[in-house]
């Protein structure tokens, strides 16, 4: 199963790059002209994201570097103990929606300390794999079209991350 | 909410740095992060230009609409505000598929193209997220790659007996989170539109 998926991943883009221009040509599309025509918007779309990403990454950067995380962990630990979430993975749970790199660092620390096949090692692996960098995605995607008012999408993203977290604890407990 | 989180991170960060006698780290962190942000955006120029070109071909060949038609039943349920067979549907499906296959540098451009299409339907309120955008981003952030290669690599590095044994649990947790995202999205959409209207 895993082999099939990784083969699929390897072939997906080359196949798209072969099939799309071929079919376009068969349908009498002027392929080169159409490509250039579409590609023109690439620069503006990418540049448009700068202010949004700078704003968000600066805030995350200050939060990360300052050690505010330890304060937050100390405050939240008692609450999470009641829910049954191991406190050791709390820094990861907080960092995961903010910064993929930072979360990966924490995950790899936990795996190193407790072992990859321990409960905590497996839990943090599952958490790393099943969550996304929610804030980064929201900032980048909304930024590219100039949306500033995110409405309920932040709450929605965080609730969904929280669900993944609780589900991960439950699944890893029952699965292994 | 985003204003609150943003302000919270900065205020908490500066207070914590000050309390720990480490205030000089703030300026450095801010400037380094700004630098990283610009680098990410600049890096996007290449892949965005490339994929926008390919997607334009796919669109003119009618492939995006074909894809949108194939997934119509599911997408009509998830995105009732998007007209049927709209190119946005095709782009959304391509983004989610690229995500699942772990094709990071194709997933982002597809996602931004989907946002562009959704923005075209968002007439009159260009600075505000539409309901379809919120649903799309909820799906996007809860739907992640089937094979988390990075974490498998780290598990291997630290001597796991079976580094891939977390793939099953990861997929299950992802499935949970997608179902929850769709459900909570409906609730929030109902709550917010009801309150506004």
Summary?
With 176 residues, chain A is an all-alpha fold. Helices cover 80% and strands 0% of the residues of chain A. Chain B has one domain.
What topology emerges from the helices and strands here?
The complex is a heterodimer of chains A (about 180) and B (about 200).
Chain A: H1 2-26, H2 31-39, H3 42-48, H4 50-66, H5 68-83, H6 90-95, H7 100-114, H8 119-130, H9 134-144, H10 153-175
Helix pairs in contact in A: 4-9, 7-8, 8-10
Chain B: H1 2-19, H2 24-60, H3 63-70, H4 72-78, H5 87-101, H6 104-120, H7 131-142, H8 149-157, H9 167-196
Helix pairs in contact in B: 2-6, 3-5, 5-6, 7-9
Write up what this structure looks like:
The complex is a heterodimer of chains A (176) and B (197). By secondary structure, chain A is an all-alpha fold. Chain A folds into two domains: 1-40; 41-175, no CATH class. In chain A, 80% of the residues lie in helices and 0% in strands. Chain A has helices spanning 2-26, 31-39, 42-48, 50-66, 68-83, 90-95, 100-114, 119-130, 134-144, 153-175. The radius of gyration of chain A is 21 Å and the shape is globular. Chain B is an all-alpha fold and 197 residues long. Chain B has one domain (47-196). Chain B has helices at 2-19, 24-60, 63-70, 72-78, 87-101, 104-120, 131-142, 149-157, 167-196. The radius of gyration of chain B is 20 Å and the shape is globular. Chain B starts with a helix and ends with a helix. The mean pLDDT of chain B is 90. At the A-B interface, helix 1, helix 2, helix 3, helix 4 and helix 5 of A face helix 1, helix 2, helix 6, helix 7 and helix 8 of B.
Question: Residue-averaged pLDDT of chain B, rounded?
Answer: 90
Largest sheet of chain A: none
Q: What is the first-to-last residue Cα distance of chain B?
A: 20 Å
- The figure for the number of domains of chain B is 1
The helix/strand order of chain B is HHHHHHHHH
Q: Which series of helices and strands of chain A comes N to C? A: HHHHHHHHHH
């Amino acid at each position: 199963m895993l082999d099939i998926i990784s083969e699929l991943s390897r072939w997906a883009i080359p196949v798209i790059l072969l099939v799309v221009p071929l079919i376009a040509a068969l349908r009498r599309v002027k392929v080169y002209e159409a490509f250039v025509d579409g590609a023109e918007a690439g620069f503006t779309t990418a540049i448009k994201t700068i202010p949004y990403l700078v704003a968000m990454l600066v805030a995350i950067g200050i939060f990360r570097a300052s050690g505010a995380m330890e304060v937050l962990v100390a405050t939240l630990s008692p609450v999470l103990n009641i829910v049954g979430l191991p406190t050791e993975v709390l820094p990861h749970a907080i960092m995961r929606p903010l910064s993929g790199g930072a979360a990966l660092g924490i995950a790899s620390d936990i795996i190193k300390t407790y072992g990859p096949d321990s409960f905590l090692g497996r839990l943090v692996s599952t958490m790393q794999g099943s969550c996304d960098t929610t804030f980064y995605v929201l900032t980048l995607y909304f930024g590219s079209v100039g949306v500033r008012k995110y409405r309920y999408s932040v709450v929605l993203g965080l609730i969904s991350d929280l669900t993944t977290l609780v589900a991960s604890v439950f699944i890893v407990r029952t699965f292994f | 909410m985003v204003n609150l989180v943003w302000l919270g991170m900065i205020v908490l960060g500066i207070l914590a740095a000050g309390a720990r006698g480490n205030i000089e780290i703030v300026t450095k962190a801010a400037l380094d992060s700004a630098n990283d942000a610009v680098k990410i955006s600049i890096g996007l120029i290449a892949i965005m230009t490339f994929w926008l070109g390919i997607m334009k071909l796919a669109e003119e060949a009618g492939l995006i609409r074909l894809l949108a038609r194939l997934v119509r039943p599911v997408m009509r349920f998830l995105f009732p505000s998007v007209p049927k067979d709209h190119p946005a549907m095709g782009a959304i499906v391509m983004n989610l598929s690229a995500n699942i296959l772990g094709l990071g540098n194709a997933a982002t451009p597809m996602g931004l193209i989907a946002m562009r299409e959704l923005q075209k339907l968002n007439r009159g309120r260009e600075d505000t997220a539409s309901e379809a955008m919120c649903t799309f981003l909820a799906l996007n952030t809860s739907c992640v790659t089937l094979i988390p290669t990075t974490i498998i690599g780290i598990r291997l590095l630290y001597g796991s007996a079976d580094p891939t044994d977390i793939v099953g649990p990861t997929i299950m947790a992802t499935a949970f989170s997608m179902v929850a995202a769709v459900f909570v999205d409906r609730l929030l959409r109902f709550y917010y539109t009801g309150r506004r209207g």
